[in-house]
Predict the structure.
Amino acid sequence: MSVEAGEHFPNLFSEIEIGPVTIPNRIVSTGHHTYLAHEHPSEELIAYHEARAHGGAGLIVTEIIAIHETAMFSGNLLMALDEACIPPYRALAERIHACGSKLFGQLFHQGRELLSSTSGLIPSAYAPSAVPNERFHIMPQPMPEALIRDVIAGYGRAAGYLAAAGYDGVEIVANQGYLPSQFLNPHTNLRDDAYGGDYQRRLTFVREIIQSVRKSAPDIALGLRISGDEMDDNGLDSDLVARICTSLAGDLDYFSIVAGTSASLGGSVHVVPPMGLESGYTAPYSELIRSVTHKPVVVTGRINQPQVAEGILRAGQADLCGMTRALISDPQMPNKAYAYQLDDIRACIGCNQSCIGRAHKGLSISCIQNPVSGRELTLADLEPVKQAGKVVVIGGGPGGMKAAVTAAQRGHRVTLYEATAQLGGQALLARNLPGREEFGGIVTNLSGELSRAGVEVVTGSTMTLEKIQALGPDAVIVATGAIPYVPKFDGRDENHVVTAWQVLRDEAAIGTSVVVADWRADWVGLGLAERLALAGCSVTLCTNAAMAGESLQIYTRNHYVGRLHRLGVSIRTHARLYGVDGDSVYFQDTLTQEAMVFDGIDTLVLSLGHDAVGELSSQLVDSAFPVLSIGDCVTPRTAEEAVYEGFIAGREVLS
């Protein structure tokens, strides 16, 4: 990389001092739960963070680290409870430092915010006061003063262990409604002792944590991670947060600003904000904290491109930018930005499907666009082929595109055939949904990868068995996708019954009163309901699930369901489509088997999932060359499975 290259982002690639630590640039991989930990850093976790450090991130912040035996937020949690943790943390620190990056850790206690437990039994939760958690429905017990003092000491001990392991800094996790926030919040701290009762006493818990950490680890950087606004009427608002940070600034080296709270459904949307929220929308909160504290500030929240980060830094809204999901999608993003290879960056699209979505299922982190993320030990190395072969890929959706890219990167001669005029498959339809526009980024990213890998692309070409055989391929990868599933039901052929694809392609005339029949309970039903409501229709969303968006990651689901509520969309659950008769649409309640009748309906929109287009795969079964089928043509699922299977097919074809 040339010296001049970094000048395109002069703020992003400048050094900054945080306390005693010099950070080489302003790009931060902030703490996030990976489910790669096993009490202490595992080799999988080390390899994961090492990839981001090697990619050029200036600061790596490892995920929440439990500082006390009562701080068991969920399974696969990092801990720092005794000296046995020092060697594995040191192994991580050495690998990060070898890449030139700095390493901070997060000191954590969840208080009443319990996600899960390893035993399956709900443990006793502790909080300042017995104020119930709205999201997890946890009633905590008030912390005795002896336990408070023990927890405070735990923060200090953990910081000492991390300092001994070679960490450069630590931050106290007071964001998003966790234990320190609960002490700071007058709605959750109802105590009338040294730790509550008025503003100054509510600060005592955090002040004593700071003192404990400084005493145990005096030579490392210390920060406070806090929500600039918890986005909930019972949470900390921006004015109170600014006052708190001003009061604590003299004892800290930096602040890390996010938004939202884990305590409520609406507030938790901001824990990992989905693509429906504006890029960099949290920057005004960090700007406020920076202005009142005069300390370095990290801001995190939908900062997925170096241009966005540079703009925030240039405007003086923050000093560093948390770009965590951008680094999950493309660990090499900083190096590419420094070299001004912006078109080569695999930009995060904010879908939340494989990062926080997998974590909430208790699965290790990954990325819908980058299956290597979280699987660095098993998938990072892409072995070149010993002998190049002629590989034909049929189908230009995300799965076929990924398969073609991966096979070409290994050295095969690859041609991709797409029946339509444009690559992208169902991703082209997804981007037509409100708030889902960024999903088209997966097509942009993969198209660039195809070009750089040297894949020949042929569009507008429907392939048959005879055409494929005439090409003389050494191997074929079939990714022909799926089409809308339309089951048999009374009235199916009425002219006011249309599919989701017809609506998204503007191929259907839609009336003013619409019912959306939603079987999958995913993006499509929610998005169609919003699109039609925005167009002025009266919309009822009938979903065959316990809630609309049930199959989506919860922050994403709650954000988009909230948008429907604001638009006045009627949502009916447990609804199985039964039939149509004139302007009446009939559903059956899946719990009671009773009829659900909607009269005066102009249009019924079917969002009932998909049918695999698998004919070509069947015809190729007895071919002389190997055939690999991937994605929806095997069985309809999501883009995550299609891209993953495409990547694996590209790795394995002609191996």
